[in-house]
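I have a small job for you when you get a moment. Would you make up a two-line entry for one protein for me to read? No commentary is needed, just the two lines. Write everything out right here, beneath this request.
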Amino acid sequence: MPGAGYAIIPVLILLVGCGGPPAQNPLLNSATEAYNAAEQDGMVVQYAPVALKEAEEALEISRDLWTAKADKSAIEHHAYLARQKTFIARETAKRNAANSEISRGEVERQQVLLEVRRSEADR
């Protein structure tokens, strides 16, 4: 049976093609990279720890779903949420850092005004 060897080729192609889910999910990878970058940013860690924790939790859910080989849309939904929450953490950190700077400026302004008043009173 010289043709029998060729009959197995389509079966092998089918088995290789159905080898399971892809080794990576681009959206999950992107969310992970964004979170890791935010986690290394001292400003985010200092000024938005709660928002960063929320991003981490969403990322963990996405990773758990990936590990459990859950539906791709569920994995990507939570990866998207993790990425957005990471963005929110970065923006929250910027806002909180700016508010902190404004507060320091206000304290300095009050001190300058007090010095001016003292100087005027001494005249």
